[in-house]
Amino acid sequence: MIALSVNLNKIALIRNSRDTTNPSVTEHARMCIAAGADGITVHPRPDQRHIRAQDCFELAAMLAVEFNIEGNPMAGPRRSDRTGVSDYPGFMELVREIRPAQCTLVPDGDDQLTSDHGFDLKRDGDTVAPLVADLKALGIRTSLFMDPEPEQIRLAAQVGADRIELYTERYARAFAGDNMIEAVFRQFVLAAETAAEEGLGLNAGHDLNLLNLPRFATVPGLLEVSIGHALTVDAIRMGLANAVAAYQRALGK
Asked: Mind listing the domains of the chain with CATH numbers?
Protein backbone atom coordinates (compact mmCIF):
# COMPACT_ATOMS: atom_id res chain seq x y z
CA MET A 1 0.00 0.00 0.00
CA ILE A 2 1.13 3.54 -0.74
CA ALA A 3 1.90 5.54 2.41
CA LEU A 4 0.43 9.02 2.89
CA SER A 5 2.77 11.47 4.60
CA VAL A 6 1.07 14.75 5.46
CA ASN A 7 3.18 17.87 5.06
CA LEU A 8 2.46 20.37 7.85
CA ASN A 9 4.22 23.41 6.39
CA LYS A 10 0.98 25.25 5.68
CA ILE A 11 -0.25 24.76 9.24
CA ALA A 12 2.94 26.43 10.45
CA LEU A 13 2.54 29.20 7.85
CA ILE A 14 -0.87 30.10 9.28
CA ARG A 15 0.56 30.14 12.80
CA ASN A 16 3.47 32.34 11.77
CA SER A 17 1.14 35.01 10.37
CA ARG A 18 0.50 36.01 14.00
CA ASP A 19 2.60 36.12 17.15
CA THR A 20 0.92 33.00 18.49
CA THR A 21 1.21 29.24 18.92
CA ASN A 22 -2.15 28.67 17.26
CA PRO A 23 -2.57 26.51 15.21
CA SER A 24 -0.31 24.01 16.91
CA VAL A 25 1.86 21.98 14.56
CA THR A 26 2.15 19.06 16.98
CA GLU A 27 -1.59 18.98 17.65
CA HIS A 28 -2.32 18.92 13.92
CA ALA A 29 0.19 16.08 13.56
CA ARG A 30 -1.76 14.15 16.21
CA MET A 31 -5.02 14.86 14.37
CA CYS A 32 -3.58 13.64 11.06
CA ILE A 33 -2.29 10.44 12.66
CA ALA A 34 -5.59 9.81 14.41
CA ALA A 35 -7.30 10.19 11.01
CA GLY A 36 -5.02 7.58 9.45
CA ALA A 37 -1.95 9.39 8.10
CA ASP A 38 1.03 7.07 7.72
CA GLY A 39 3.66 9.73 8.29
CA ILE A 40 4.41 13.40 8.81
CA THR A 41 6.59 15.57 6.57
CA VAL A 42 8.10 18.99 7.21
CA HIS A 43 10.36 21.18 5.09
CA PRO A 44 12.22 23.64 7.32
CA ARG A 45 13.91 26.48 5.45
CA PRO A 46 16.62 28.82 6.78
CA ASP A 47 14.23 31.79 6.89
CA GLN A 48 11.81 29.66 8.97
CA ARG A 49 8.92 31.10 6.97
CA HIS A 50 6.73 28.17 8.00
CA ILE A 51 8.16 25.12 9.80
CA ARG A 52 10.76 26.19 12.33
CA ALA A 53 13.68 24.25 13.74
CA GLN A 54 11.93 23.96 17.10
CA ASP A 55 8.89 22.41 15.41
CA CYS A 56 11.13 19.63 14.12
CA PHE A 57 12.40 18.81 17.61
CA GLU A 58 8.89 18.90 19.07
CA LEU A 59 7.53 16.62 16.36
CA ALA A 60 10.41 14.19 16.75
CA ALA A 61 9.64 13.93 20.46
CA MET A 62 6.01 12.90 19.94
CA LEU A 63 5.75 11.03 16.63
CA ALA A 64 5.32 7.28 16.52
CA VAL A 65 4.84 7.25 12.72
CA GLU A 66 7.46 7.94 10.06
CA PHE A 67 8.99 11.41 10.29
CA ASN A 68 10.29 12.79 6.98
CA ILE A 69 12.35 16.00 7.03
CA GLU A 70 12.91 17.67 3.66
CA GLY A 71 15.36 20.39 2.79
CA ASN A 72 18.46 21.66 1.10
CA PRO A 73 21.52 19.94 2.60
CA MET A 74 23.66 22.94 1.68
CA ALA A 75 21.57 25.32 3.80
CA GLY A 76 23.78 26.57 6.62
CA PRO A 77 22.97 28.11 10.00
CA ARG A 78 21.12 31.40 10.25
CA ARG A 79 20.32 33.63 13.19
CA SER A 80 16.68 34.37 13.77
CA ASP A 81 15.57 38.01 13.75
CA ARG A 82 12.24 37.21 15.41
CA THR A 83 11.73 37.28 19.17
CA GLY A 84 10.99 33.87 20.60
CA VAL A 85 12.10 32.00 17.48
CA SER A 86 15.27 29.94 17.85
CA ASP A 87 18.10 30.16 15.35
CA TYR A 88 18.20 27.83 12.34
CA PRO A 89 21.11 25.42 12.98
CA GLY A 90 21.69 24.41 9.35
CA PHE A 91 19.84 21.61 7.61
CA MET A 92 22.38 18.82 8.02
CA GLU A 93 23.01 19.77 11.65
CA LEU A 94 19.26 19.67 12.33
CA VAL A 95 18.84 16.26 10.73
CA ARG A 96 21.92 14.79 12.40
CA GLU A 97 20.54 15.73 15.81
CA ILE A 98 16.97 14.57 15.22
CA ARG A 99 17.70 11.48 13.09
CA PRO A 100 14.28 11.17 11.42
CA ALA A 101 13.24 7.93 9.76
CA GLN A 102 13.63 9.58 6.36
CA CYS A 103 15.44 12.63 5.02
CA THR A 104 14.55 13.98 1.59
CA LEU A 105 17.24 16.19 0.11
CA VAL A 106 15.86 19.00 -2.07
CA PRO A 107 17.88 21.53 -4.12
CA ASP A 108 15.80 24.59 -3.25
CA GLY A 109 17.05 28.09 -2.52
CA ASP A 110 15.91 31.01 -0.38
CA ASP A 111 14.60 32.85 -3.44
CA GLN A 112 12.21 30.04 -4.39
CA LEU A 113 8.59 30.30 -3.30
CA THR A 114 8.50 26.50 -3.24
CA SER A 115 10.54 23.60 -4.56
CA ASP A 116 10.49 23.72 -8.36
CA HIS A 117 13.11 21.29 -9.69
CA GLY A 118 15.00 18.14 -8.86
CA PHE A 119 18.72 17.59 -8.48
CA ASP A 120 21.11 17.84 -11.41
CA LEU A 121 23.45 15.06 -10.36
CA LYS A 122 25.68 15.47 -13.39
CA ARG A 123 26.66 18.78 -11.83
CA ASP A 124 26.15 18.13 -8.12
CA GLY A 125 26.66 14.39 -7.71
CA ASP A 126 30.11 14.69 -6.14
CA THR A 127 28.70 17.11 -3.57
CA VAL A 128 25.58 15.09 -2.82
CA ALA A 129 27.22 11.65 -2.49
CA PRO A 130 29.08 12.29 0.81
CA LEU A 131 25.96 13.90 2.30
CA VAL A 132 23.94 10.80 1.43
CA ALA A 133 26.66 8.62 2.96
CA ASP A 134 26.64 10.75 6.12
CA LEU A 135 22.88 10.38 6.57
CA LYS A 136 22.85 6.66 5.83
CA ALA A 137 25.62 6.12 8.38
CA LEU A 138 23.21 7.56 10.96
CA GLY A 139 20.54 5.05 9.95
CA ILE A 140 18.43 7.62 8.10
CA ARG A 141 16.72 6.47 4.92
CA THR A 142 17.76 9.03 2.32
CA SER A 143 15.72 10.19 -0.66
CA LEU A 144 16.60 12.67 -3.40
CA PHE A 145 14.08 15.05 -4.99
CA MET A 146 14.28 14.30 -8.71
CA ASP A 147 12.67 15.18 -12.01
CA PRO A 148 11.34 12.21 -14.04
CA GLU A 149 14.54 11.87 -16.07
CA PRO A 150 15.95 8.32 -16.33
CA GLU A 151 19.57 9.40 -16.72
CA GLN A 152 19.41 11.51 -13.56
CA ILE A 153 17.63 8.73 -11.68
CA ARG A 154 20.44 6.31 -12.51
CA LEU A 155 22.88 8.85 -11.08
CA ALA A 156 20.78 8.98 -7.89
CA ALA A 157 21.47 5.28 -7.44
CA GLN A 158 25.17 5.85 -8.07
CA VAL A 159 25.43 8.47 -5.32
CA GLY A 160 23.93 5.97 -2.88
CA ALA A 161 20.35 7.17 -2.34
CA ASP A 162 17.82 4.73 -0.90
CA ARG A 163 14.88 6.36 -2.65
CA ILE A 164 13.95 9.19 -4.96
CA GLU A 165 10.98 11.52 -4.65
CA LEU A 166 9.59 12.37 -8.06
CA TYR A 167 8.72 16.05 -8.46
CA THR A 168 5.15 15.83 -9.76
CA GLU A 169 4.22 19.39 -10.77
CA ARG A 170 4.64 18.50 -14.46
CA TYR A 171 2.11 15.72 -14.06
CA ALA A 172 -0.32 17.92 -12.11
CA ARG A 173 -0.22 20.63 -14.78
CA ALA A 174 -0.81 18.09 -17.54
CA PHE A 175 -3.68 16.50 -15.64
CA ALA A 176 -5.29 19.93 -15.22
CA GLY A 177 -5.66 20.23 -18.97
CA ASP A 178 -2.69 20.98 -21.21
CA ASN A 179 -3.61 17.98 -23.45
CA MET A 180 -0.29 16.22 -22.79
CA ILE A 181 -1.41 14.01 -19.92
CA GLU A 182 -0.78 10.64 -21.58
CA ALA A 183 2.73 11.56 -22.73
CA VAL A 184 3.60 13.14 -19.40
CA PHE A 185 2.18 10.25 -17.39
CA ARG A 186 4.28 7.87 -19.47
CA GLN A 187 7.39 9.90 -18.49
CA PHE A 188 6.62 9.23 -14.84
CA VAL A 189 5.99 5.54 -15.47
CA LEU A 190 9.32 5.30 -17.26
CA ALA A 191 11.00 7.13 -14.38
CA ALA A 192 9.43 4.65 -11.93
CA GLU A 193 10.61 1.71 -14.00
CA THR A 194 14.11 3.15 -14.08
CA ALA A 195 14.09 3.57 -10.31
CA ALA A 196 13.06 -0.05 -9.89
CA GLU A 197 15.80 -1.22 -12.23
CA GLU A 198 18.34 0.71 -10.14
CA GLY A 199 17.05 -0.66 -6.82
CA LEU A 200 15.64 2.68 -5.69
CA GLY A 201 12.46 3.06 -3.65
CA LEU A 202 9.94 5.52 -5.09
CA ASN A 203 8.23 8.47 -3.40
CA ALA A 204 6.41 11.39 -5.03
CA GLY A 205 5.09 14.81 -4.18
CA HIS A 206 4.17 18.35 -5.19
CA ASP A 207 0.77 19.52 -6.45
CA LEU A 208 -0.85 16.11 -6.01
CA ASN A 209 -4.51 16.47 -5.04
CA LEU A 210 -7.76 14.54 -4.74
CA LEU A 211 -8.43 14.77 -8.47
CA ASN A 212 -5.05 13.74 -9.86
CA LEU A 213 -3.88 11.37 -7.13
CA PRO A 214 -5.90 8.25 -8.10
CA ARG A 215 -4.26 8.16 -11.53
CA PHE A 216 -0.80 8.83 -10.16
CA ALA A 217 -1.26 6.08 -7.57
CA THR A 218 -1.10 3.58 -10.45
CA VAL A 219 2.56 4.44 -11.13
CA PRO A 220 4.38 1.14 -10.60
CA GLY A 221 6.37 0.73 -7.39
CA LEU A 222 5.12 3.91 -5.72
CA LEU A 223 5.75 3.63 -1.96
CA GLU A 224 4.87 7.03 -0.52
CA VAL A 225 3.34 10.39 -1.38
CA SER A 226 3.94 13.60 0.55
CA ILE A 227 1.05 16.06 0.33
CA GLY A 228 0.55 19.33 2.15
CA HIS A 229 -0.80 22.31 0.24
CA ALA A 230 -3.81 20.67 -1.42
CA LEU A 231 -4.65 18.59 1.65
CA THR A 232 -4.63 21.70 3.86
CA VAL A 233 -6.89 23.54 1.43
CA ASP A 234 -9.28 20.58 1.35
CA ALA A 235 -9.21 20.46 5.15
CA ILE A 236 -10.62 24.00 5.27
CA ARG A 237 -13.59 22.77 3.26
CA MET A 238 -14.18 19.31 4.71
CA GLY A 239 -12.25 19.18 8.00
CA LEU A 240 -8.79 17.75 8.60
CA ALA A 241 -9.82 14.21 9.54
CA ASN A 242 -12.14 13.97 6.53
CA ALA A 243 -9.43 15.32 4.24
CA VAL A 244 -6.86 12.75 5.43
CA ALA A 245 -9.44 9.98 4.94
CA ALA A 246 -10.27 11.27 1.46
CA TYR A 247 -6.61 11.21 0.43
CA GLN A 248 -6.25 7.67 1.73
CA ARG A 249 -9.25 6.67 -0.37
CA ALA A 250 -7.68 8.37 -3.38
CA LEU A 251 -4.68 6.11 -2.83
CA GLY A 252 -6.98 3.10 -3.02
CA LYS A 253 -7.25 2.39 0.71
From this structure: 3-250 (3.20.20.70)
